Amino acid sequence: MDACTLGDLLDVVGEPSVRLHTAPAGLTAPVTEALLYDAHAPLPRAPGALLLAVGVRAPAAGPLARAAADAGMTGLVVRGADGPVGEAESAGLALLSVDEDAAWHQVHLLLASAIAARPAAGGGGDARGELFALADAVAAAVGGATAIEDPRQRILAYSTVPGQATDEDRRQGILGLQVPGSPANTEQYRTVFAAPGPVRLPALAGALPRLAVAVRAGGETLGSLWVVDDGRLAPDAEAALVRGASTAALLLLRARAAQELARHQDGDLLRRLLEGTADPAAAAHRLGLEAVRVAAFVVDSPVSAPDGEQTALRLLDLVRLQCEARYGRHACVLVDGVVYALLPAGAERGGGREPQAAALRKRTHEQRHLRLAEDIVRRAGQALRVPVRAGLGEVVASLDEVPASRDDADLVLRVIGPDLPVASAAEVRPRLTLLRLSEVLRERHELSAGAWQEVLAHDAEHGTEYARTLLAWFEAGCDMAGAAKLLAVHPNTCRYRLRQAQQHIGIALDDPDERLVLWLLLRTLTESGRTSARASAR
Fold first, then answer.
1. Is residue 390 within 8 Å of 421, Cβ to Cβ?
2. Which backbone phi and psi does 505 adopt, to 5 degrees?
3. Which one of 189-193, 303-307, 434-438 scores highest in mean pLDDT?
């Protein structure tokens, strides 16, 4: 397991909890532990430690910064923003600060948990083992089968001490790692989370009584401990359960810190994949992905800058939660107001030998991804109370092609709107092609100049409808009656407009090449204008 660095620590517990003011040795400096300063004891030599300046005012912490540097420490944490930046820099020591009203014991717990949460490549598997070991230890001390749960009643760990009583509720909960729901169960959880200490709960139908306690840290509820009470619990069962809850709080904080660090690292990796700067092989090894599709989500509503940033962050949390529920550990990242996620598409094997099977797999992935995106958009709209759009790029066979899938997803966001809030690139490929063509045509003068400009200029100056009539005629297959039906006018009106356009502008509608170019330019410009109008409306 790699050592925790100052950068890792800040990734987990950065602003607003902890602020960095200077780091002369850089963010790769190792951080080994968090120590509370004791003015009545000599300062120990502790290479890599962070020293919390308990009892020392920030402006007067210069001597302590020098002493900490002499002791080999990595940094000093002060309370308040006016710490000794100059002294820290000259001593080669990092200086960090917390809020004036922060409690030192909570700061110490937060930093110690983050330092201990150095995730391995698997994302913190050790924490799960520690929770199971704790469940066994609590069960032995209290005298009853024990379960550790999160606030959503999911079972994180359970004891396996032989000979302890159990019941069907416990068996069903362990089987699905989720406590069976019922109104009576919900009421018991309310009682436990509202109580300041352990609570003895009566038996529910077909079950044994329980002894339970909430797991808290700094006023935040992290979960709960539940013990099956068969009437033979230890005399000090409640005190033992309180001690177990205290240890569980530390382990849950460590597990959460490890998860947050892993999420940050995965998000940073995804950002580099989207930019095309990551090593695809290393990324595939870390994320366990090959064929993928980029999904892009964006809030479809004009909001003020502060509200917009907060809404985008909430959208990121919601997308990540839904993707993790579907796929497990997942890479999501917020870039310029757009939330990107990598959706696994499986390895497309045997495509040449089994084209029908490969096509079926592709359609299946497309349907699953669209259903997921639609579900996220619906949930996000309800939670954020603003409309959300989602665009899905094409599936790519390897992670080095992620930028191409991202380009597709971004284009989809540009061409969809309230009438179609979710779409894949395959569904709107004609719109994407026209949008790209319009961009290319505008960039090249020799492609963009010609009769189409004169048609539009004449319409703008004289109030005519030559461009609209020409497009209708082209799209009706050069059939006058069909064009008239599209325009809801008499065929003679269409015929008159086309004749006038030929006379005033000099277009040659009998030339198939000119007809093709004129249709393409007018059509791409029209689609580009619609896309711009949709973007402006947002």
1. yes
2. -110, -25
3. 189-193
